[in-house]
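Sequence, structure tokens reproduced for absentees:
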Amino acid sequence: ELQDDFYLNLVDWSSQNVLSVGLGACVYLWSACNSQVTRLCDLTNDNDTVTSVSWAERGNLVAVGTNRGYVQIWDVSANKKLNVLEGHSARVGALAWNGDLLSSGSRDRHIFQRDIRTPSQVPERHLVGHRQEVCGLKWSPDNQYLASGGNDNKLFVWNVSSQSPMQTYTDHLAAVKAIAWSPHHHGLLASGGGTADRCIRFWNTLTGQAMQSIDTTSQVCNLAWSKHSSELVSTHGYSQNQILVWKYPSLVQVAKLTGHSSRVLYLAISPDGEAIVTGAGDETLRFWNVFSKARSQKESKSALSLFTSIR
């Protein structure tokens, strides 16, 4: 089942138009082209479960973080596990690719960064800064900066070579899982806070300045920018379980989408940038045309097809 856990990242959509979904001990792949479902892996025999999934940019490799602290790299076309990265001592809930480099964030508070072409036992970089679980991890569009969010309510920005954070933002009052770099404004970073915070905040990471912030009245689970326009989508938990679309910089709310009956913990954007998929603790995946020219307030028809076909 799709776990109702704020700290996990169990849905991702590849550049080749394939969704990966972590369900319990398994990762399933769903082709948006032909609706075919395949099971990529099953960790039952390892007495392990899936805690994160993330596609490499080319869409040929998928990284799978596990509850026991491993990161598996799978070649999807060959249906083959290439390697297993060790080093974390607790679950890996956040993954972020930068070319052949893979960053992983864990409940052990550490971030590792490794080159998957030369996987040694020793991580290439070991980033220590968070005091609690790392739950958000995103590389900037130019691949120069890594933003990390933690259950310690902190947001850090690391550059490609530093061992300590270049910037520290401490304004959030709850866990920072939702992180998104703007593809339109260089250095602009958005972050969202959990239940005790509920705010989306914007940062100019070039100057270290805090920009706008808005109280959304609900736990912020995810954020993503439109590829085509200066808009972003946020997904929410307690108490309204809604999906909101905002204009930037005005922060005018241009759409409100409802349909999930529990918190909208998972979000991914289609490769063409027009649709999103959301996943929730109500065990449904839903598809929405939020960024298309003909924006729809309703979910598209394929809402439950993934889950019915998996079951």
